[in-house]
Write a structure and sequence with these properties.
This protein is an alpha/beta fold. It has one domain: Dihydrofolate Reductase, subunit A (3-Layer(aba) Sandwich), CATH 3.40.430.10. It has four helices and eight strands. It binds NADP nicotinamide-adenine-dinucleotide phosphate (NAP).
């Protein structure tokens, strides 16, 4: 008798954001993050994006700044109205799904993907955090204060404990890239 076992590697789920000192991830009502994030953050994010085989975003983030998949990249856009996006799949590289975050994570874990980049926005981040599905938060903090705008998470009751892994100053103005592990 043969026993055929599958070795599943742990898929890292990384939440990535750029925010201001007052925790804003959009400037007022504008969806254009690149209009205020530093060139150093943009260069770092561009590298990270290109090397991420698998990235997940919310429908509003997709509509805010239509993205182009990098070579070999698979992008999942989460929406409860996936049928509306027929024809926007960019040759199969962009997928629109109404799966829950838990179902999505399970599916890609079973495909042995090493890493899932969760690139916002706040509503999606909240769902993944509520589900206990985030391993690390990679947060760029820009030394700016906007007063008004989206937060890192949606207004909801959360209680997430994190622990600093590393901290790097990206430029003279003091843009900080801080990486945190979610304490589970
Ligand atoms: N500073 C940064 O790093 C950063 C990063 C990303 C985005 N942003 C900004 O954030 C804004 C968008 O953020 P947002 O919070 O409004 O929207 P979002 O999180 O990008 O998208 C929310 C939408 O995702 C869909 N969705 C499907 N399943 C979901 C689930 N389980 N949980 C939550 N959403 C689910 C729903 O779309 P349907 O209504 O279609 O069902 C929902 O309305 C944009 O302005 C963008 O530029 C900033």
């Amino acid at each position: 008798m043969f026993y055929c076992g599958l070795l599943l590697l742990k898929m890292e789920k990384i939440l990535v954001f750029v925010s201001t000192l007052d925790g804003k991830t959009t400037k007022w009502d504008s969806p254009l993050v690149r209009s205020w994030s530093s060139p150093e953050d943009q260069a770092y994010f561009s590298r990270l994006w290109k090397e991420s085989e698998l990235a997940v975003i919310g429908r509003s983030t997709f509509e805010a700044d239509p993205i182009k998949p990098a070579k070999g990249q698979h992008i999942v856009v989460m929406t409860r109205n996936a049928h509306k996006y027929a024809g926007k799949e960019a040759g199969g590289q962009i997928e629109f799904t109404d799966e829950s975050p838990k179902q999505l994570v399970k599916r890609f874990e079973q495909l042995n993907k090493p890493r899932m980049l969760i690139a916002g926005g706040a509503h999606l981040a909240t769902s993944f955090l509520q589900g206990g599905l985030i391993d690390e938060l990679w947060l760029t903090i820009e030394p700016k204060i906007f007063g008004s705008g989206n937060g890192l998470v949606a207004r909801d009751k959360l209680d997430i404990q994190l622990k600093l892994i590393s901290c790097e100053k990206l430029n003279d103005a003091g843009t900080i890239l801080a990486k945190y592990a979610v304490v589970k």
